[in-house]
Amino acid sequence: MSDSEKTDQEKKSGIFEKGEEFLEMFRKGQEFTHDLLRENERLRYRVAQLEENLKQKLEAPDSGPRDAGSEDAAGKIARYEKRLAELEARLKEMEAENVDFAQRYIDVEEQNNNLANLYVASYQLHSTLDYEDVLQIILEIIINLIGAETFAIYLLDEKTGILSPEAAEGISRDQIPSVKIGEGVIGSAAQSNQSYFNENPHQDLKKRFSDPLVCIPLTIKDDVIGVITLYKLLQQKERFAPVDFELFTLLAGHAATAIFSSRLFTESKRKLTTFQGFLDLLSQ
Amino acid sequence: MASYSFLVIEDSPTMRQLIRFALNRIPGAAVIEASDGVDGLKKLSSNKVDLILTDINMPIMDGLKLVNLVRSNDSYKAIPIVIITTEGAQEARERAMALGADAYITKPIQSTSLLSTVKELLDL
What we know:
The complex is a heterodimer. By secondary structure, chain A is of the alpha+beta class.
């Protein structure tokens, strides 16, 4: 064998050895890859198992085995949720009660205001026996408590049957015509002893003298002694309030007795003064 | 308990009584009454007053003249003034406020409205 053949033989033998080594490495790599794939498969199966368990636990929280801690926590959550629902229901009840109390408070305040008005009107009407003062107090009540700007107090002359304006506000008494009982709106209100409320008053104030906004007969028992007539309300008073009708009722009775008794008292006082003067003359 | 002194200047005894009724609902309230502006100034000079409530249309001295005098006096100019009047026109309201009134209430009054105005002015 020549040197060159020898060298070729050695080279081939080296290549075979390398090939064997490479093949061995490839086999080991293949085994390792298979091991990895198996481990991967095992782990994926385990993950799937755990996910399934978790899903079951979440879907059925009240069933299945649990540990003591999670049992206790779930119980607490349930109790808190129940308490929260109770508190929410109570809050709703309290809110409803609150609205109710607020409305009642407004009603009570309104009643309080009305009672104060009625008390003051009644108190003032009977606070004096002076005829002029009584008329002035009636005017004040109608201006300040009812809110009328133009109005009159008619008194009946029983002998003639004529209703004449005795006091007026917002207009001179001379401009208000006297009325015969039974005639027109005012005379009819006096004759029938029925209050009159005009819901469609004339725009012209002068026309309201024969057809007022309101006529309130002044009565003692069934005897009419006069009429209060309202022609115009104050600018800021748009309509009558419920208390105004209570005040009309109060005025119908109390103003009548106050006028009647003060007139009697004033006449008696005048007569007493006359008699006293006469007696003084006699005793001299 | 804090006490408050109110000066009510009003020629109508009926209105004075009604305003007194309303103010007496404030704990510790003391009400001084005067029947016209001059009487009101006299009472103001002889009493400690926390708030003045006055009508406009009164004999001897009207409410607007009174507001003017109170606001031009260093001793009284800080006292809040509430006008209570039958005058519902906007010009009357503007005139009173321009002179120095703090609130303007038209008659017929509602005690709740009067009380809330008074409480607001006194920070009650």
